[in-house]
Structure prediction request, 199 residues.
Amino acid sequence: MEEKTEELRELFLDVTDEETLTESQEDSRGSLTGESEPVDERLEAVIAQLDEKFGVQTSLSDDQECQLVRLFYAGESDAAIASSLDIPVADVFDARMALLLVREADIPEPELGREHQRELLAEGTVETVAEETGLETAVVERAKEALTADERSGRVSHRFRIEFEEILTDADLTVRFTVGAHEDGLEDATDGAEVDVEF
Prediction:
């Protein structure tokens, strides 16, 4: 086992480019481990650009907006996001619309077909469309907000959504690469070692 321990030590030193094991290594995490701060800084920069273009008005803090973006792309529901951020579900929807984060489910189809969607975007009344489609007024109002947000996103070729996705994809790939490399290294270093050892 001492031989395997030495192999692990050498592997660690090779990976970290350090000559000795020091306490500073505990503080050096973040460059390749997908820590939230660099990612959130990039997300905040995109939100700032979005704000400059369209004006982002939400009841959330900057940190909450970044967390909302992360949770949205993680596939979390509005209810789950609201629970994580400790805010009302309605605030999650409003913030998503401000950040142009539209879900397919926000626009009920086929009940709300293309013609009615165009009507809503052309300042058609929610009440009229609700009566014609049989949908609740609240559902149509929500759909109108989603259509408006999606139309805004389309005006800039969905640039902001693409940037959000790229930032989070880069972060995810970095974490996978780092974890994968770590696991592969440990597997090589411990290959053949006894694992069922009784003490």
Observations:
- Confidence is low (pLDDT under 50) at residues 20-34, 177-183.
- Residues 159-189 form the longest helix (31 residues).
